[in-house]
Design brief:
Length: 321
Amino acid sequence: MFKYIQWGVTIFLLTWIFSQVDLKLITNVFTFDKIPLLTIIVFFFISSTHPISTYKLYSITTKLHKIPFTRITKATFIGLFLSKTVLPNLGKDVVEGYFIKKNTNLSWAPIFLILFLNRLTGFIAIILFAFFYLIFNSERLLTFFPIQDIQGKSVDFYVLLMLSVLLIFFSILLYLFRHKILRRKNEIIKKLKESSSYFDKPFFFYLVVLSSFFYIFQVLAFGYIIQLFEYDVYWYDLLFVLVISKIVTTLPISIGGIGVQETSIASLLSLFNIPLEIGSAIAIFIRILMIVPIAIGGAFMLFSEPIRYSEIKQEFVNKGK
């Protein structure tokens, strides 16, 4: 039942976002004079999505078991390919866990720790950027205290929105933790403690720094994309849009975050005087930028090493529950 709701949300949001945009706005950016800017965008976007993410997962995995970097690269590409295109509800983490399990003698508990640590450090980096944004915009935040001053000041609205979304996300995270993880807390905690001895504080900090570079490159790519559409937004406001869209996309309300990401980006950009039509075009362009390199690289690697969904489910998902 929940899966049908997710599909319904995805179809509804995609229908809405495409109804807001003239596709010529997207095709018009692929001109000869914009090739240098497109090259810069592709460089920053792919650098954040692939090399940094892959190296981070490789660094965590090799702490517990030696594994070739090429295998982690293949796991990342195929995981992104399946989760973003063919099987959007599968989850990149599941595919990565499957490849790690297939190429090491690790049990599911340390693999869970690897994937959890990978996600956790990325989430911490998001929160650090969120607090950095709030500190950087402290004058806006201070205007909340006199309630009568909030009305009519749209510049303060998105700061309040950020705090609200963070609160909602923490609430959902707590709910999922209580109802999914704590059912086997004693067994999980015991196995995680055995594996966690390999990870010290400097290494944890190193992972957060890697995640930070991921988001820095994303903000740079985001800024150049907006310039490509001949608009301009301050970099710290782009940071706000990126943080909120990333947090909202992690909520399990659509298939693979499709539709939610586009709607959140377009809606948030409208707060910075970017028309909804242009914001929708930017959001769709970002989705294309995500899918094309993933489809090319992932399909090639999947062709060289075919895998079945049933095999992944049997090997990892069922044993991970």
